[in-house]
């Protein structure tokens, strides 16, 4: 028997019992109301039994009986031709209210909060341990647990997918086990056939998902909401196999909900967006948050005219006028991903376009790749992920160096975006393609988000959020941050961590690849210039890592905090993200920095060319999948000739880099090699000049003496950051020095990192 989940205050609970029921597809149908600061609507979830239940039930009669009852087939044919009323291309709240009459005469026992509180329900959900234990059901009903917080759940019902006209094509292999359960079995069989359609039928699949989501309800389900979960059951149903595989939930978000933020943009207009909350999307819609719950989705979002809806979606949505003053936006995704990657931004965004930057410019970028880098893109392998329309198997996608992109911003920032950002995107996309090959996603939107955004950037499928802070001060900060977020398309999205505590897999790779991409995006840099920039970056990151290690809790410095237990789940699939809600962790960079230095250490040990080839191979093998640290390390070490391994093993890397706090031992032993870099030495020389000047001014006191004029060299942005950080270590700097620094380097015109 598994113990009751009792997360610590600072740990984020993942409550969904994914081992028993696994969501495969979401359909969201939402209205955004800026007056009440509420998103309201319906979500329909399509399920399959989870892997643990499939394993334990496959030997039973229930799963293996092969006979088909003729009566059942006749009844199925009749059921499939029930006309679906009020079904249209765009659903609305009114249509779903019409369907609510199909509740089989059940009495509404919900209280004001939408919770069903009858005695039978209260006794049936005493603990998820009892209700989810498939080995010992007793008389308990099966309990479906979803991740949910800060939501008002109004109603939950089973969806009668068998009522959809034309759905009979998905019933041909339906098997009968019990005549009394024929209708329930038929519905679940339809959902099974629908979610397992082959990838080349994805358009048909989305069409029938939409049709099924608009089908009438066939009975309300009992539910209760807790602090972190929504628990649903159907009276008399004791197994995940028999539990409804398509359910519809009516709900509202709360203005204080932690998944989205309601604010105004830089032009003073209202907007709402998902800002990367520690609770992910569970306060936006009920979902299964564990990474293993890879799912696809469709979403229709209605809002007032004048607002633009941007979202994680493969299509560039065009608004549809529903009625006066109301627009509907529709997006879809066919690549299964965790629900935490779903992103939405609704605001009065303006698309930034530049006439002078034509398609011809993009063409030149796309085909300026070195031919020597093309070979790996033609290396076809069978993908290791679940079936979906994969771009790695698409010959046209494999040749696409620059995917279609758009830029959106508040009206007042459009000119700044046009100045640098528009030109940088194709260069950075092309550099990423040159390094890693096929872009995992078919298009990209870039949005400049409101000023309350707490970081410089955030990547989600098909969309990147950037802070307004990256826009001023030239192209350097904007370009490097863009490269970092583009790298997440491969590491963090197409390849995700199976255990969220291993976030170094995402952030460490993105930080390391940021330098590679940016060097190539700048074009025509010499080898020495590239090496100089990267060593300068290493110097800055070393200082940040050193400071963070000295000023943070040791347990927060460990990249694999669960160590040997990493990736393990409870019997139901529930788990916790260690330190997931700890406030100071949000501002820490240790996963970025230690992850970066580990990857840099491995590249220096193996050689950069071989190392990048291994990363390309890893992308080819593991895209569309969830990984643990050892998946990358084992593959990498298998490819290294023995003479280069230098005693490297997965165990030694765990011990020295991932499972310990503080500065990794190999990094200390390596020494600060970046100090030998010309750009770093140049800064050291300038620091010395400033310190001497400061000393002379302090000694001269108030007497005005003619000073020998000191000539200071022009510095790059990263050099300026290093200079200022070095000068901050001095005990005293006189006001005149600060004025001279401002005048010499025009600090207020530099980028945000220098100004900070």
Automatic annotation (TrEMBL):
SUPFAM superfamilies: ARM repeat, Leukotriene A4 hydrolase N-terminal domain, Metalloproteases ('zincins'), catalytic domain. One of its GO terms (molecular function) is zinc ion binding. The keyword Phosphoprotein does not apply. Pfam families: Peptidase_M1. InterPro entries: Aminopeptidase_N-like_N_sf, AOPep, ARM-type_fold, M1_LTA-4_hydro/amino_C_sf, Peptidase_M1_dom, Peptidase_M4/M1_CTD_sf. Residues 439-657 form the Peptidase M1 membrane alanine aminopeptidase domain. Gene3D superfamilies: 3.30.2010.30, Neutral Protease Domain 2, Peptidase M1, leukotriene A4 hydrolase/aminopeptidase C-terminal domain, tricorn interacting facor f3 domain. GO terms for cellular component: nucleolus. The keyword S-adenosyl-L-methionine does not apply. Residues 106-126 are annotated as: Disordered. It comes from the Eukaryota. Keywords: Aminopeptidase, Hydrolase, Protease. Residues 106-119 have a biased composition (Basic and acidic residues). This is AMPO Aminopeptidase. It comes from Anhinga anhinga.
